[in-house]
Design a protein that fits this description.
Layout lengths: L1 E6 L6 E6 L2 E7 L1 H4 L9 H11 L8 E4 L3 H15 L4 H13 L4 H9 L5 E3 L2 H10 L6 E7 L6 E9 L2 E9 L4 H11 L8 H8 L7 H7 E3 L5 E3 L17 H6 L12 H29 L3 E5 L6 H9 L5 E4 L8 H14 L18 H10 L4 E3 L3 H13 L4 E4 L13 E5 L5 H11 L8 E5 L43 E3 L5 H14 L3 E6 L11 H9 L5 E4 L2 E4 L1
Parallel strand pairs: 1-4, 4-5, 6-11, 11-12, 14-19, 16-17
Antiparallel strand pairs: 1-2, 2-3, 6-7, 7-8, 9-10, 13-20, 14-15, 15-18, 16-18, 19-20
Helix pairs in contact: 2-5, 3-4, 6-13, 8-11, 11-12, 15-17
């Protein structure tokens, strides 16, 4: 049975193809359109998924969409009724949105794929839950989904068993941890749906001295639920502003201008926000444990990208194991929709396999060489992977910055060793160098260390593995000066543990790095520059290489030099 999943029309549009319970293709539309956070209909991603699966529309048994547009419209209309004239703008926008985009999904799917049968519409948070539970290694688990908002739900708790996913409770709009974080992101001068990662990084430079003020905004309850005081927010009525004048009055600080340097107070407010969100997430996890009695937890939704909160949940000891699917945000909705559609329509038993994330395009050496030649690029060809890895390891040890393009592209926002920029973590200057000369981004942004899975506990206080960069443990005190470029200001690191089974070539490279330096760790960041999506094709990689200060590009069997 072949099922297509689609997520689109808000941000991070994507498509996914499931064949007989196996994910054979999944990709964000932005990787093909080269428009970051592309929200449009994912026609290119859909076309690629079908081509990767060797299918046409006649071979499809179903198409599943990650949310219910009419229910979202209902929420907008009821909100307008409850909040009066000031919410009419949002209601009108949602009506246009349904009429012009999501309400015309059937037509868009037919035009893109030729499929003209019915579409299965799922609740937004059910798609998140399915995206976390079905790819997990668990037969049974509690499932917690936390984001800005879906249709009505902003947070939901499910119980997963086999192929069954049952909703136990939910928290409804306008009470939302995701919208709280986004409102504070805007208040502190960053872009909503883009700057939340930046705010999390900035928080490490501050002290949580304003937690008491956040008690005016957010109230936590013993059952895991929470409420936001809407006097401080205006996202119910405006698409252009998320907070009211009461918020800057509370903190005694005007809203920060985008791009302006952050002061210590900005950092302290960010740290206070992070602390209360961590507390709220642990409170939710405790409620999930009490409601389900489960040993395992699956997390999804945009807030599940908050690695510091994830670490707090793991360190709480509430659950034996935690799984977070790498595309935990809206792009992963297509994955959840496709998998739920498959199990819902087929009635097949659950397939449990080691979690994967590299579902995107791959390119062979013939295709790569053709791209290099067409772009008049000099290169050296290596006869075997071991020789390439040794050469790249030597370059990294000598402080050269490497673009690393190998195998299938990752699905989701993390580069995990297939579309990566790599550098020497032992050189403290590498953090500033890569931020300024290569990524063109804020100097306070941290970088992740990728470490051999079998050596991870030598460097990090890691409670379990972290193959998808979803946790930020402390770096051991004696290792902080060993890998300073990947040790954040608070002595944590968003670590990736690399196994030979999941990432054989990347693992081989880090082994070679360890042989040369004695430190089996490499600085790993996504292969892109500020404002652009992660590279997808060889041509994307070559352009990014040329337009930044990356020193070498290792692409397939080729090493490209300036």
């Amino acid at each position: 049975m072949n099922i297509l999943g689609i997520s689109c029309y808000y941000h991070d549009s994507s498509a996914c193809l499931v064949k007989d319970g196996v994910v054979v293709a999944a990709a964000d539309e932005e990787r093909f359109s080269r428009k970051k956070h592309d929200s449009g209909f994912p026609s290119r991603a859909l076309e690629w998924c079908l081509r990767q699966g060797g299918l046409t529309s006649k071979d499809l048994n179903g198409v599943a969409f990650y949310e219910k547009p009419l229910t979202k419209l209902e929420r907008a209309l009821i909100t307008a009724k409850n909040y009066g004239d000031k919410a009419h703008e949002m209601a009108a926008w949602n009506l246009r949105h349904v009429m012009e985009e999501s309400g015309c999904l059937d037509r868009a799917v037919k035009e893109a794929t030729g499929y003209d049968r019915g579409i299965l519409y799922l609740e937004h948070h059910l798609s998140h839950a399915a995206s976390a539970f079905y790819p997990s290694p668990f037969q049974e688990a509690a499932i917690l989904t936390v984001d800005g908002v879906g249709e009505w739900a902003t947070t939901a708790l499910y119980s997963g068993s086999g192929t069954s996913i049952s909703k136990l409770r939910e928290i409804r709009y306008p009470h939302s941890l995701g919208l709280l974080y986004s409102a504070m992101t805007a208040y502190l001068g960053f872009e909503v749906n883009e700057g939340e990662y930046k705010l999390m990084g900035l928080a490490s430079y501050g002290q949580p001295k304003y937690q008491d003020l956040f008690n005016h905004l957010l109230t936590l309850h013993d059952d895991g639920s929470f409420r936001l005081d809407q006097d401080f927010f205006c996202y119910t009525s405006s698409r252009d502003r998320m907070f009211s004048d009461a918020l800057p009055n509370l903190f005694g600080m005007e809203p920060q201008h985008p791009g302006a340097p952050s002061t210590q107070k900005h950092m302290d407010v960010a740290a206070s926000l992070q602390a209360v969100v961590e507390r709220a997430m642990v409170n939710l996890a405790r409620a999930a444990k009490e409601a389900t009695g489960a040993s395992n937890l699956c997390l999804a939704g945009g807030v599940a990208h908050n690695v510091v909160a994830n670490t707090a949940i793991r360190d709480s000891g509430l659950f034996e194991q935690i799984f977070i699917q790498p595309a935990a945000g809206d792009s992963g909705g297509s994955l959840g929709a496709a998998l739920y559609g498959y199990y819902h329509l087929s009635g097949a038993p659950r397939l449990i396999a080691p979690p994967e994330t590299c579902f995107g395009p791959a390119y062979d050496d013939t295709e790569i060489q053709a791209a290099l030649d067409s772009m008049n690029q000099d290169y050296e060809c290596f006869d075997d992977p071991d020789s390439l890895c040794r050469r790249v390891a030597e370059l990294i040890a000598h402080d050269f910055i490497i673009g690393w393009f190998q195998g299938r592209m990752e699905f989701g926002p993390r580069a995990l060793g297939n579309r990566s920029i790599l550098a020497n973590p032992r050189n403290a200057a590498m953090k500033e160098t890569v931020n300024a000369r290569v990524k063109f981004r804020e100097e306070f942004r941290p970088f992740a260390p990728a470490v051999l899975e079998e050596r991870a506990t030598e460097y990090f206080a890691l409670n379990g593995d972290s193959p998808f960069m979803q946790f930020a443990p402390q770096v051991h005190p004696d290792k902080r000066t060993v890998i300073p470029a990947t040790t954040h200001v608070d002595n944590t690191a968003r670590v990736q543990t690399v196994s030979a089974e999941r990432y054989p070539l990347f693992h081989r490279l880090i082994v070679e790095i360890g042989k040369i330096s004695g430190v089996p760790v490499v600085l790993n960041t996504s292969f892109n520059v500020k404002g652009e999506p992660i590279v997808c094709s060889p041509a994307d990689a070559i352009r990014c290489f040329r337009n930044s200060d990356i020193d070498y590009l290792a692409i397939g069997s080729f090493l490209v030099m300036r």
